[in-house]
Design goal:
- With 136 residues, the protein is an alpha+beta fold.
- It has a single domain, classed as STM4215-like (2-Layer Sandwich).
- It has two helices and seven strands.
- Strands 1, 2, 3, 4, 5, 6 and 7 form a seven-stranded mixed sheet that branches.
- The radius of gyration is 15 Å and the shape is globular.
- The protein starts with a helix and ends with a strand.
- The model has no long low-confidence stretch (mean pLDDT 92).
């Protein structure tokens, strides 16, 4: 499968919800990292998923969308909610990397993580994804 996180990042950028720079030098969406700047930022990371089934062309992945805002928790909560609504229930989408998002289902609604060491509030959304790679 191609780079799923890059495909998801480009998809969200295309929806106008984030500003994604694949080099990681600019923008506000980062893959598997949450740098100290900018204050308002989003991080995508895959984490512990079930073992793949050998006879199924779709794989189950777990995605964490972490959103950081400022000292007002409404900033990160509002953005987390927008990302949640953009992904939860999304099905049958070919991502820019060639992967197919068969289905995205949130494990819950956006949840607060509290402020980071700089007083910037964070929220998180976790999703179960059914994805498959491009076929020949």
């Amino acid at each position: 499968m191609a780079d799923l996180l890059d495909g998801l990042a480009r998809f969200l950028d295309g929806l106008g919800l984030v500003d994604y720079d694949p080099t990681g030098r600019t923008g506000d969406l980062f893959v598997e990292a949450m740098p100290p700047a900018p204050d308002a930022a989003v991080s995508l990371a895959l984490y512990d998923g079930p073992a793949p089934e050998s006879r199924d062309d779709a794989e189950q992945r777990r995605l964490q969308v972490r959103v950081r805002g400022g000292p007002d928790p409404r900033v990160s909560r509002t953005r987390a909610e927008a990302l949640y609504r953009a992904l939860h229930g999304r099905a049958g989408v070919e991502l820019p990397d060639g992967s197919w998002l068969t289905l995205a289902a949130a494990r819950g609604t956006p949840a607060p993580l509290g402020p980071d060491s700089n007083g910037r509030h964070e929220h998180v959304v976790n999703l179960d994804l059914d994805v498959s790679g491009p076929t020949t």
